[in-house]
Amino acid sequence: MLKAVILIGGPQKGTRFRPLSFEVPKPLFPVAGVPMLQHHIEACAKVPNMKEILLIGFYQPNEELTRFICSAQQEFKISIRYLQEYAALGTGGGIYHFRDQILSGGPEAFFIMNADVCSEFPLPEMLNFQKEHGEPSSFVILGTTANRKQSMNYGCIVENQQTNEVLHYVEKPSTFVSDIINCGIYLFTPEIFQHIGAVFQKNQQDMLLYPYEGDEQTNGWHRAEAIRLEQDIFTALAGQGKLYVYKTPAFWSQIKSAGSAIYASRLYLNQYHKVHAERLVTTEDGGPRISGNVYIHPTANIDPTAVLGPNVSIGTGVTIGAGVRVRESIILHGATLQDHSCVLNCIVGWDSTIGKWARVEGTPSDPNPNDPYAKIDSETLFRDGKLTPSITILGCNVTIPSEVIILNSIVLPHKDLNRSFKNQIIL
């Protein structure tokens, strides 16, 4: 039997995702109409013999998370449990801490997935690849090709081209190492815990030898248990005949910033043609004009003269008035777009209102369309003291008055604006 573990992180991360992560844990943010995590769970539930999905993170178990897990269990008919870490333990420390839960029932292998990636999740292909390569206890990393410059922002993999064995692994190198990057999706056998355990033992010995290095106040156990799969495990395993890379030609992207959520939404909406055609709407008599891939929740109320798409996702209870134009945007539940407003490259927060004839627009942060291997840049918010132009984000319950323009700005929750803004963070 198989299991899957999804690493969902915790509240101190996701700072680049503000102000959206104020309202909802980042893994539950809707991308292409469903919570980010649901795409992972759907992919896992399709794998034959998958018995359980474990979510590991250090969010307090809140109502939203509990409700999501209950509805996902019913929908996908699979056991899903949330295991809460007592602190941020890193990608390796979290699974090592809960190794008994992961190994209970005796799975022959288990997937590890980071929650903040968007992918076609070629899990069955990774299983077949593992059977064909190396010994039964070998481990598989999902890799993809990036361009030379961007590869240095990721974990880089040097492979033996005949056998696909990982010969060398470097996390975010300072010079070019390889254009094959780590996708944050792994297939492990229970033997991985021997390797993580060895790092844990070494950390404990180091703590005895150098008890006051770093932060004096930290609990020693916590410091020994904070283990990173990438830097601590993969770097050591590379070149030992244990670690292999399965390269996927399918789509993959990280979801680090709000701008990358719009790009991920586009990738998933495009994939719906193959796996969820029922989630895409088309132009119908008496309905709004649809161009490209658009998801509309059945509870949304949309005027037939509106024009939507491409790449638009509209949440529950949204109201869209006459003559509204929306493209490349995510409209979250309860938002109202009044008559003739225009929303481009934007995330409109929960219960926000955009007035008549207002224009809310951002700059797309898409990868270079002429480079097949380009990935999305995780831009910093500021460059040279100025706000980097990117998509416009309205937090929850923001009111934009009629006939104003909001351009390349981030508006924090509960703001009533009274004029136009450009290139600003409105606090």
From TrEMBL:
A GO MF label: nucleotidyltransferase activity
Domain spans labelled Nucleotidyl transferase: 3-201
Pathway: Nucleotide-sugar biosynthesis; GDP-alpha-D-mannose biosynthesis; GDP-alpha-D-mannose from alpha-D-mannose 1-phosphate (GTP route): step 1/1
Transmembrane segments: none
Domain Mannose-1-phosphate guanyltransferase C-terminal: 290-426
CDD domains: M1P_guanylylT_A_like_N (cd06428)
Keywords in alphabetical order: GTP-binding, Nucleotide-binding, Nucleotidyltransferase, Transferase
Similarity comment: family membership: Belongs to the transferase hexapeptide repeat family.
Function comment: Regulatory subunit of the GMPPA-GMPPB mannose-1-phosphate guanylyltransferase complex; reduces the catalytic activity of GMPPB when part of the complex. Mediates allosteric feedback inhibition of GMPPB catalytic activity upon binding GDP-alpha-D-mannose. Together with GMPPB regulates GDP-alpha-D-mannose levels. One of two paralogs (gmppaa and gmppab) that may have redundant functions.
Record-given protein name: GDP-mannose pyrophosphorylase Aa
Organism: Salmo trutta (Brown trout)
